[in-house]
Design brief:
Layout lengths: L2 H21 L5 H10 L2 E5 L3 H4 L3 E2 L3 E2 L2 H5 L5 H7 L4 E6 L3 H12 L4 E6 H6 L4 E2 L4
Parallel strand pairs: 1-3, 1-4, 4-5
Antiparallel strand pairs: 2-6
Helix pairs in contact: 1-6
Length: 132
């Protein structure tokens, strides 16, 4: 295979990865906020606990991606408490929330990536210290 085709395949793979995990958002932020306010959706921070110390979106459930991919000690109970709700997932950059949303959709859960904590903060929506 020529070097041109290898480079083309690598660039194409990166663009697909970027679209699926980084750029793809399930809802824009105003629509996400409306879904939360109506009670149709629940906001979830999928970052790891040590990352929450810097702040979390107000009213977000704190459920790490590692638990979703592991024992699900927290996720199992959370999903049982919110059947039929749309899950709006965010993380630091939007990448892990994209992966979590894809995994949950594969399991039949209505989950979307709404981006990053920074997106919420820049939109002027409350970012607070996490509850102990």
């Amino acid at each position: 295979m020529s070097l041109f085709w290898i480079i083309l395949a690598a660039v194409g793979g990166f663009l697909v990865f970027r679209q699926v995990f980084l750029a793809r958002r399930g809802l824009d932020l105003p629509a996400a906020r409306a879904a939360l306010q109506s009670g149709a959706a629940v906001l979830v921070d999928v970052r790891e606990p040590e990352e929450w110390r810097g702040g979390v979106a107000k009213e977000a459930a704190l459920l790490p991606l590692s638990d979703l991919r592991g024992a699900r000690t927290q996720w199992r109970a959370f999903l049982a408490r919110h059947p039929g709700k749309k899950l709006l997932l965010y993380c630091q950059s939007g990448m892990r929330s994209g992966m979590a949303a894809a995994q949950l959709r594969g399991e039949g859960v209505d989950a979307v990536n709404v981006g990053s904590l920074g997106d919420w903060d820049r939109a002027g929506w409350p970012v607070v210290s996490p509850k102990a």
